[in-house]
C-alpha cells in the first residue's frame, strides 16, 4: 500500500511518463515528415523507452496492491521550428521530469516508504543519462548551425540508435 499522498503522486508520474512517450512520438513523426529519418528513429526509440518507464510505474503501483488510475494525457505539440528546437524542448521537458522524480523521491522518504524510495533510484540515475544525451546532441547541433551536410551527418548518427527492450519480468525492477 501507499499513503494517499504517495498514491496520487505515483499515478501522476505514470501520467507524466505517458506524456513523455506521446511527445517523442510526435517529434518522431515531425522529424520523418521533414526528411530527417535518423532523427525520426531517435525519437521513436525514445518513445519506446518512455513506454518502458510507464510500465515500470504501472507494474510497481500494482505490485503494492494499488489500483492504477489512468488519467487523460495532454496533446503534445505537433510542429517544431527545427531539429535544434526539438532537442531543446526535449531537454527542457526532461529537466521537468527530473524535478518531478526528485520530488517523488523526497515524498517517498518523508512518508517512510522505503520500497518506493528504492524503486525510484533507477529513475534518478536514468534522468542523468537522458539529460546528458540531450545536451550532447544540442551541442552538436549548435556547432552544425546552418551546415546542411553536418545536419545530414548527424541524422545518420541518430539513425544508429537502437531500442534495447528490458529483460523479461523486470518491468517492476
Ligand atoms: Fe521517462 O524519462 Fe524521459 O521523460
Describe this structure in words.
It is a single chain. The protein has 173 residues and is mostly helical. The protein has a single domain (4-159), classed as Ferritin. The chain contains five helices and no strands. The longest helix has 31 residues, at 114-144. The mean pLDDT is 96.
**Class based on secondary structure composition and strand pairing:** mainly alpha
* Oligomer class: single chain
Question: What is the share of helical residues?
Answer: over 70%
The number of domains: 1
Order of helices and strands: HHHHH
Distance between the termini: 17 Å
Question: Summary?
Answer:
It is built from five helices and no strands. It has 173 residues and is mostly helical.
Features:
single chain; 173 residues; mainly alpha; Ferritin; 5 helices; 0% strand; binds hydroxy diiron-OXO moiety
Topology:
Layout: H1 4-33, H2 37-63, H3 83-110, H4 114-144, H5 148-159
Helix pairs in contact: 1-2, 1-3, 2-5, 3-4
The structure holds hydroxy diiron-OXO moiety (OFO).
Hydroxy diiron-OXO moiety (OFO) is lined by residues 17, 20, 50, 53, 94, 97, 130.
Amino acid at each position: 500500500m501507499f499513503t494517499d499522498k504517495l498514491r496520487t503522486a505515483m499515478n501522476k508520474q505514470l501520467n507524466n511518463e505517458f506524456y513523455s512517450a506521446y511527445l517523442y512520438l510526435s517529434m518522431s513523426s515531425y522529424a520523418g515528415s521533414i526528411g530527417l529519418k535518423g532523427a525520426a528513429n531517435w525519437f521513436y526509440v525514445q518513445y519506446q523507452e518512455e513506454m518502458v518507464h510507464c510500465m515500470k510505474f504501472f507494474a510497481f503501483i500494482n505490485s503494492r496492491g494499488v489500483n492504477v488510475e489512468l488519467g487523460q494525457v495532454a496533446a503534445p505539440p505537433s510542429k517544431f521550428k527545427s531539429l535544434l528546437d526539438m532537442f531543446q524542448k526535449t531537454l527542457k521537458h526532461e529537466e521537468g521530469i527530473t524535478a518531478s522524480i526528485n520530488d517523488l523521491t523526497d515524498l517517498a522518504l518523508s512518508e517512510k516508504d522505503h520500497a518506493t524510495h528504492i524503486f525510484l533510484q533507477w529513475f534518478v540515475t536514468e534522468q542523468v543519462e537522458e539529460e546528458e544525451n540531450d545536451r550532447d546532441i544540442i551541442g552538436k547541433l549548435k556547432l552544425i548551425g546552418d551546415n546542411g551536410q553536418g545536419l545530414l551527418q548527424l541524422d545518420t548518427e541518430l539513425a544508429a540508435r537502437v531500442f534495447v527492450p528490458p529483460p523479461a519480468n523486470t518491468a517492476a525492477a
